[in-house]
Design goal:
This protein has a single domain, classed as NagB/RpiA/CoA transferase-like (Rossmann fold). It starts with about 30 loop residues before the first helix and ends with a helix. The chain is α/β, with parallel strands linked by helices. The strands form three sheets. Strands 3-2-1-6-9-10-11 form a seven-stranded mixed β-sheet. A two-stranded antiparallel ribbon has the order 4-5.
């Protein structure tokens, strides 16, 4: 497990303080606290990027294959009709092997929203779909936005991440695209879709992550050797068995 650089005074311990950060309120002014949290997250991102880059290519390929096997075995994926993946970049775990051969399911990839800042829509994708780089040099399907779908229509989203913890909190690259795109889940409790499935190498796990009200937690995280679920779901599964 990755050892977090987060000091105890901003560790996640329940409750939300006046700054919107879950956990104990650090000493000092709000401005200082916000700067501290930002510095912590930026440092953690740097560490996790370096850790992921150091993973050998053959290890990443082998671990991605193990992740794909686990994904294919999930009932939530087998029941899904509309599934979003992503093109792996900068050493990310590759989820496409799990969905590339889907026959009765529709597969999509994220595309920068053409009108709304820092949001995503999802373009249909097959192995023959032409890709083009977006402004971040991330490949996207070369598909007119009129043929894309809104995130509410997806059943499962294979979600990239830099880091995660056992409470299913997610640390992304810092742009906030996924949090803004799926922010509707915070207000629509009756709308269970889509199921956000984090995809990660085991080395990306952190002890704890600071969380703000803007952050959208994951429903599960899959690594090469573990499926992380909410405590309630783990309890229910154990009771059922």
């Amino acid at each position: 497990m990755h050892t977090s650089v987060i000091p105890p005074e901003v560790a996640v311990q329940g409750g939300i303080n006046s700054l919107g950060i879950r956990g104990k309120r650090p000493q000092g002014t709000p401005e200082c606290t916000l700067c501290l949290v930002t510095m912590i997250l930026n440092e953690l991102r740097r560490e996790l990027k370096q850790r992921r880059r150091r993973l050998p290519p053959d290890y990443r390929a082998r671990a991605s294959a193990q992740i794909a096997t686990r994904i294919r075995q999930l009932p939530v994926l087998r029941r899904a009709h509309h599934i979003a993946g992503y093109i792996p970049c900068r050493g990310e775990a590759d989820p496409l092997a799990a969905i590339r051969s889907a026959q009765r399911q529709h597969i999509y990839l994220p595309v920068l929203h053409p009108f709304l800042s820092r949001k995503l829509i999802f373009a249909p994708w097959t192995a023959t779909t032409r890709l083009q780089p977006n402004r971040y040099n991330i490949p996207e399907p070369d598909v007119a936005w009129q043929h894309c779908i809104r995130p509410e229509r997806l059943d499962v989203v294979l979600t990239p991440l830099l880091g995660f913890d056992a409470q299913l909190n997610r640390l992304g690259m810092g742009g906030g695209y996924y949090d803004r795109t799926f922010a509707f889940r915070r207000y629509c409790r009756h709308w269970p879709r889509p199921y956000l499935l984090g995809i990660a190498f085991s080395e990306q796990q952190c002890e704890t992550l600071p969380v703000t009200p803007r952050d959208i937690p994951l429903d599960a995280v899959v690594t090469p050797d573990t499926l992380f679920l909410p405590d309630s779901e783990i309890h229910n599964n154990a009771h059922a068995n």
